Amino acid sequence: MPKRIVEATVKKRGRRVAVAIMNTTQALDMPETDGMEFSHPDETPGETEVRLTKTELAEVVKP
Prior knowledge:
- By secondary structure, this protein is α+β, with helices and mostly antiparallel strands.
- 22% of the residues lie in helices and 35% in strands.
- The chain is built from two helices and four strands; from the N terminus they run E-E-H-E-E-H.
């Protein structure tokens, strides 16, 4: 199964700022950070407005 790609973002001055593009395994290995959200892995990273917390992302990619 190919790893799905997500965009990690944080909120800065009321706006979402892109931090990185990574696969879902890397995203779930990141430390907890206030305001960090990830694009939905079924959408196009960098284009979608569908954002998930780390907990929500874990549920979406659960086998």
